[in-house]
UniProtKB/TrEMBL annotation:
PANTHER family: NICOTINATE-NUCLEOTIDE PYROPHOSPHORYLASE [CARBOXYLATING]. CDD domains: QPRTase (cd01572). The lineage of its organism: Bacteria, Pseudomonadati, Bacteroidota, Flavobacteriia, Flavobacteriales. Its EC number is 2.4.2.19. Residues 28-112 form the Quinolinate phosphoribosyl transferase N-terminal domain. One of its GO terms (cellular component) is cytoplasm. This is Probable nicotinate-nucleotide pyrophosphorylase [carboxylating]. Keywords: Glycosyltransferase, Pyridine nucleotide biosynthesis, Transferase. Pathway: Cofactor biosynthesis; NAD(+) biosynthesis; nicotinate D-ribonucleotide from quinolinate: step 1/1. Involved in the catabolism of quinolinic acid (QA). One of its GO terms (molecular function) is nicotinate-nucleotide diphosphorylase (carboxylating) activity. The gene is nadC. It is an enzyme of class 2 (transferase).
Length: 285
């Protein structure tokens, strides 16, 4: 996984790029009618229900736009919220508040939706010992925000990108000439380049599970698109050799059944690619 320092750099880049995209050579709506000396205060108002996420991100946005802005937090990331709740107050230059407004809302609305969906999956898994993972099926350019939201919702992050973990999927295996060759070539590559990366290998059937176990040296086996019966068989075959992960169209209706097969993890792209933004507003007070 990437380091905290790397992750923060991703967040910094998101903020800088988003402000560049939105503000350009100036917020002319505000510049036209609000004096640069004017100060004000606004509240982050919830008009929905779920898990709030993005409060700490919002603070970073306000600081980037104007270091003199002050935030009074009433509700922290990961807390349940309902219609009418006030999450925080921000005060400072009126122009600065308006400059930051849209980025804060866009990010928090999406992050809260992801955190809420993740939390619902976490609750469905209670008592099973199985953990929910996100995927790389994220919105280009804001992956760090979406993976942050998964953590806030109680889930865990899969690899961040292509560079922080090896994941041999069906195409890698087919292009490499089979599972044994793909795994051996990967081990050789890691040794030759001096890289210390964990290896995950996708299995399409029980025979591939057997081949992966024979090759050895794998951190986790991705049991992809298996039915319940074959998932249980795969878990039994793997035992303590490595960790297990189920994936492939798993939803709220099937999530717990797969967990009860004994897998360590379930990964779901739906956490980030199939959510509806929560309704939040930033209102002057």
């Amino acid at each position: 996984m990437i380091s905290e320092e790397q992750f923060q750099k991703e967040i910094d880049n998101i903020i800088a790029n988003a402000i560049r995209e939105d503000v350009g050579d100036g917020d002319h709506s505000s510049l036209a009618c609000i004096p640069d000396t004017a100060t004000g205060k606004a509240k982050l108002l919830v008009k929905d229900e779920g898990i709030i996420a993005g409060v700490e991100f919002a603070k970073q946005v306000f600081k980037y736009v104007d270091a003199d802005m002050e935030v009074e937090t009433l509700i922290n990331d990961g807390s349940p919220v309902k219609y009418g709740d006030i999450v925080f107050y921000v005060s400072g230059r009126s122009q600065s508040i308006l400059k930051a407004e849209r980025l804060v809302l866009n990010a928090m609305q999406r992050m809260s939706a992801i955190a809420t969906k993740t939390n619902s999956f976490v609750k469905l898994l209670e008592g099973t010992g199985t953990k929910i993972l996100d995927t790389r099926k994220t919105t280009p350019g804001i992956r760090a925000l979406e993976k942050w939201a998964v953590k806030i919702g109680g889930g865990e992050n899969h690899r961040f990108a292509l560079y922080d973990m090896i994941m041999l999927k069906d195409n890698h295996i087919d292009f490499a000439g089979g599972i044994a060759k793909a795994i051996q070539k990967t081990k050789d590559y890691l040794r030759e380049t001096g890289r210390d990366l964990k290896i995950i290998v996708e299995a399409r059937d029980l025979d591939e599970i057997k081949q992966i176990l024979e090759a050895g040296g794998v951190y986790r086996i991705l049991i992809d698109n298996f039915n319940y019966e074959d998932t249980r068989k795969a878990v039994a075959m793997i035992g303590d050799s490595c960790l297990t992960e189920s994936s492939g169209g798993i939803n709220e209706d099937t999530l717990r059944k797969y967990a009860e097969c004994g897998v360590n993890y379930i990964s779901s792209g739906a956490l980030t690619h199939s959510v509806f933004n929560k309704d939040l507003s930033l209102k002057a007070v």
